[in-house]
Amino acid sequence: MPRRRDTKQRPIDYVASGDWPHAVLEPSLAAAYAQELARNLRQVTEGMTLREAAHLAGLDPMTIRALLNGYTWADTVSVAKLELGFDQLLWPGDDSRRALLRAQTHSS
């Protein structure tokens, strides 16, 4: 797997204050996307066990846990499986991405 430059090990490593996934983050568009994905995933899996959520998405329960807790960066295959399994768009939508991009641009 290619190494990321100028990216911390995990999305949660960008937390400046508060608790993931509702924390205030250090400036990082990638971490902001991961946080939004975690929020969306948390919403659609509410009331489910990790095993139930993983079964629906065709993923390992620890992958779901890692994404929810900001312990790993999402890959496109996992996002696609999650969206198909839950029949929901989980990646930040256009409006969210525009707002996150504006916030990052103005904080730099």
Descriptive overview:
This protein is mainly α. 53% of the residues lie in helices and 5% in strands. It contains five helices and two strands; from the N terminus they run ββααααα. The chain has helices at 29-44, 50-57, 61-68, 76-86, 94-107; strands spanning 15-17, 24-25. The protein has a two-stranded antiparallel ribbon with strand order 1-2.
List keywords for this structure.
5 helices; 2 strands; mainly alpha; two-stranded antiparallel sheet; globular
The number of distinct β-strands equals 2
Query: Quick one: biggest sheet?
Result: 2 strands, antiparallel
Task: Tell me, rounded to a whole number, the average pLDDT.
Answer: 92
Q: From N to C, what is the helix and strand string?
A: EEHHHHH
- Rounded to the nearest angstrom, the distance between the terminal CA atoms is 29 Å
Note the overall shape. globular
List the total number of helices: 5
Low-confidence stretches: none
Structural class, by secondary structure, is mainly alpha
Could you tell me the radius of gyration in angstroms? 14 Å
Biggest sheet, spatial arrangement of strands: 1-2
Share of residues in strands: under 5%
Helix content: 40-55%
